[in-house]
Amino acid sequence: MLRLAKASITFIRRCPQTRVLASACSANMKYLNVAEKNDAAKTIAGLLSRGSSQRREGYSPYNKIYEFSYNLHGQSIQMIMTSVSGHLLTHEFLPSFRGWHSCSPEDLFDAPVRKNCPEQYEKIKKTLEREVRGCSALIIWTDCDREGENIGYEIIEVCRAVKPQLRVFRAKFSEITAPSIKRAIENLVQPDARQNDAVNVRSELDLRIGAAFTRFQTLRLQKSFPQDISNNLVSYGSCQIPTLGFVAQRYKEIENFIPQTFWKIKLTHTIDELTVEFHWSRNRLFDKQCCEAYLMLCQTNPTAKVVNVTQKPKNKWRPTPMDTVELEKLGSRKLKMNAKQVMTIAEKLYTQGIISYPRTETNMFTGDMKLAPLVQAQVASDQWGSFAEKVLQWGVNPRNGKKSDQAHPPIHPTKLPTNLSGDEWRVYELIARHFLACVSRDATGSETIVNVVVAEEEEFTASGLCIHERNYLEVYPYDRWNAKEIHSYQVGHTFEPTELGLHEGSTTAPNMLTEADLIALMEKHGIGTDATHAEHINTIKERGYIGERDRGFLVPGTLGMGLVEGYEMMELRLAHPELRAGLEADLKLVCEGRKNPNDVLAEQIAKYKEVYRIMSQKARALDRAMGQRLNQTPQEPPPDSGASAATATGSALMREVCKCPKCGHKMCLRTKRDSSGYYLGCVAFPECRNNIWFDDSMREINVLDDTCARCGSKKMTVKFRSVRFYALLQSTDMDEYQFCIVCDDKFRNLFNINESSVRVAAGARSSSNTTAVPVAQPARSSTSTWGTGNQSERRPANTAHNTTSSGIGRSNSSAGSSSSWGTGQSTSNNWGGSQSSNRGGGSSTTTWGKPANNRADGPAKKGGGFGDAGGAKQNSWHNPSNSSRVGIGDEDGEVMCRCGTPASRFTVKKDGPNKGRPFFSCPNQASSCGFFKWGDENMPPASSNNGGTGGGSVSWGSGGVSNSGSSWGRSSNDTTSKTSRTTRKCGLCRQEGHTKNKCPQRGESTDF
After folding, report:
1. Contact at 8 Å (CB) between 387 and 436?
2. What per-residue confidence (pLDDT) applies to 886?
3. Based on the domain organization, do 364 and 400 belong to the same domain?
4. Residue 865 phi/psi, 5° resolution?
5. Residue 954 placed within a domain
6. Domain membership flag for residue 159
7. Where in this chain does the record put each GRF-type domain (predicted)?
8. Are 749 and 739 in contact (CB under 8 A)?
9. Residue 348 pLDDT > 70, yes or no?
10. Which residues pair with 443 in a beta bridge?
11. Which of 319, 361, 499, 992 is most open to solvent, judged by the fewest CB atoms within 10 Å of its CB?
């Protein structure tokens, strides 16, 4: 109690110091602010500091740093303002998939991707990492749209990698003006993770889809048309190709258009040089004789009688507030500038604080937005200042549209600049005049419509227009509304037509698309967003898919037209908007939280993967379509269509075998760089460096389509350079050996392959686990003991109470024999295996493999394999009292396989050293457990070479079958070998004086 009282007193005494420390911390708080571009950072810093910010250099010469103090919520904070240059990180494939010949294009749909900082932005990243170290919070000032939100999260990722506990805030603003920026910093919010997710999905899909189809098309067409397309990149983009499709469709409509001749009756009435033309109610007829009959009827009584005169008010509506699509269309039509150029200038004006954010889907002003000050700012203009005064007198009255993105207002001027010129001034003028027009009044007038009848049957109509007030037209020269004068007609009045005759004409093809028309189609069909329309059009221009003619008309190029027609011949709707429009709709649902981004990603990949499969099957149709446009006959492509071009090199052998136990990505079979051998590597390299290098004794390795019934991994076949390895693996087929790298312990142990490289290490399992399946190797005892040793522990191999072995493998032991399998400590150091048998009642030890990584986890002792062969306690995965006796004859003398059923008996009929030998294997061919046992292994030998009642050792090596007592290596029963050091022998020919890498028999094979 006394101690507690003292502690309380101490706490009370320290409280004033804590408050002082907190106050000092508040006084020294430092926030890092990051904008999307340097111009924006400079302007925002100037507005927040009222022009007192201090500039210094960052690592990037294009992204400066601005420092100033700011009082936020009553606390003085040291602000550090800097910027990025758009996206800081980008999605990319891992290095093993970046080469065009590194894999099949189809593999790119599932290949691992990562976000990485491109080299040109490393200095920006370095600046952020340096500056954030001394800051307690981060404020994101990027553009307030999807892409800006994603850029913000990229900045957060970089900064939190340095400072994980960093607080993050988001500034929301629509224009870079003092009131807007002050409002944003006083009302900081959290970043929008949903918008970030949507952009990540879109970005990853664009990478996968674009790379897969681009590689396929390019490699295919380059081989089919080496003269015309040998140096062309035939790219694919899920937005670019539908955009090309719109241009190609209009071009084909014009190309296939057949003009038709038509006839119509023309009636005019002229008084004092004013001619009024009346339009026939039937408009036009495509039958000349029929039209002539109507004309003859009219000419029998050509007097025209006025039957109706209608006068009504007529207004020309002012435009709705400007959104991004309208800005792009008006810039193309009225300013004759391409959409990308218009948007580039608009973004520059925005970062200078002259206009509001130019990427918006909103065309309506909210009721709480104060528009009068914005109009007042335009009064000082020499060109439209007087009209701005009129608007203020009338009262600001915007004509609103129906769209809103709930993020930004329509595009409008924020101030009147004095230093603009050229195209920048033209774009600003368009925005300012459009804004004043939309908040003013409609133009008003009246329309007169006159209806006359000729020959009491045929009706004709004429109209006139009188303008009363031009209103918005005074400031908006981009619209035209011309008065149309007409005579004064009264009902019942008659007159003789000045002209009454037959007029011949013909139908005309539609005009080719302009950029404005194309943008309108893209918006209508949901291709891209308002922020990306200009980029997509510019991309297909740069690719040569479309070109621009006089007056801004767009026409498809030869390559673009060939692609579109090729897709149609393959019956693929890639050039139509449905696929991409579906993605854009899903991304909106992701932003609204109504759809999971992972689900969208998986669904879209599945759709395009199916399209790719069809394309690869029907690729010849693409060749034919392109050949028709190029006026060439395509060369005969490789047998495997487009994908074969990608897999033409040896490095492209990249077939999935199993899943990597380290990271979960694919483990694929590949050839070495010098094509001298094979290895199994994780596709996530270099992030994951798990791999298996196969021994040089393997001449050829292939991956089969069949999967292992036990683990689901792909089976493989191997052809060895020497037949001795078939014997070591106890294979009946001396041409090739089929195996599963995950389940075949014999293969892994023989070639010292670590089990943890292909599956979770057995050492991670409990020693009492009784569910493990033994490997397909005949057991010589009634008890199967399996080691599950933790390799991080160094223990003796044969301690009486050791329940954890030093390796991964199996030890079969009985009263008089011990059999050790695995990759841990063994009783013999030779790599071909050592087998000695004392069948007369002595001990028997069989050792396969060599120590993994040449480690010695404990002293080498007789019987000390990978399970505990001796002692009272055994590390068994099967209860000895009820374990099945695999490979051991039952009471009836039957040999049981690991499935628990009697094994089938066969005889080797193929020529070779094993011809005539009996063997047992699993009878279940469809789901084999892999059991194998020689039928003559337990037969008593003819003579004894080991003394006592034991028998000789059977050796299956390069020398064939031998009963002389010689073995593959040193016998574990040889007492001399325990005390003397033997000379190292070759792993292939078993001769002394060299290793297998320098063996003269290397690469030779007696049986191939």
Report:
1. yes
2. 42
3. yes
4. -95, -125
5. no
6. yes
7. 897-938
8. no
9. yes
10. 316
11. 992
Amino acid identity of 147?
E
Among 169, 191, 213, residue at a domain's last position: 191
Burial (CB < 10 A; 0-12, 13-18, 19+), residue 317, is exposed
357 belongs to the catalytic site: yes
* pLDDT tops 90 at residue 797: no
Residue 844 has pLDDT above 80, yes or no: no
Average pLDDT of the segment spanning 754-767: 63
Q: pLDDT band for 993, please (50, 70, 90 cuts).
A: low
**One of 357, 428, 476, 567 is an active-site residue; which one?**
357
Quick one: angle between helices 324-333 and 515-525, nearest 10?
160
| Residues β-bridged to residue 81 | 33, 66
The SS3 assignment for 495 reads strand
Each as own residue / partner, the long-range contacts of residues 954-959 (CB below 8 Å, 24 or more positions apart, any chain) are: 954/835, 954/837, 955/835, 956/724, 956/727, 956/728, 956/913, 956/914, 957/724, 957/727, 957/832, 957/990, 958/722, 958/723, 958/724, 958/988, 958/989, 958/990
The pair of three-digit structure tokens given for residue 433, joined into one six-digit string: 């005049």
Nearest 5°: the CA angle 98, 100, 105 is: 90
| Residue of 750, 748, 780 lying closest to 761 (CA atoms) | 748
Cα distance between residue 530 and residue 549, in whole Å: 25
CB-based burial of residue 790 (10 Å sphere; 0-12 exposed, 13-18 middle, 19+ buried)? middle
Higher-confidence residue of 994 and 834: namely 994
Can you give the CATH number for the domain in which 167 is found? 3.40.50.140
**186 is in which domain, residue-wise?**
25-191
Per-residue pLDDT at 916 exceeds 90: no
Give the count of beta carbons closer than 10 Å to the beta carbon of residue 76. 12
Instruction: Print burial letters for 591-624: b (CB count within 10 Å at least 16), e (below 16).
Output: beeebebeebbeebbeebbebbeebbebbbbbbe
Distances (CA, A) of 303 to 267, 456, 459, 495: 11, 9, 12, 6
Predicted TM-score (pTM) of the model is 0.68
Among 397-406, 544-553, 736-745, 818-827, name the one with the lowest average pLDDT: 818-827
Overall domain count for the chain: 5
Residues 464 and 589 in one domain: no
| In the predicted structure, residue 768 carries a pLDDT above the cut 60 | no
- The answer to the question of residue 771 being in a domain is no
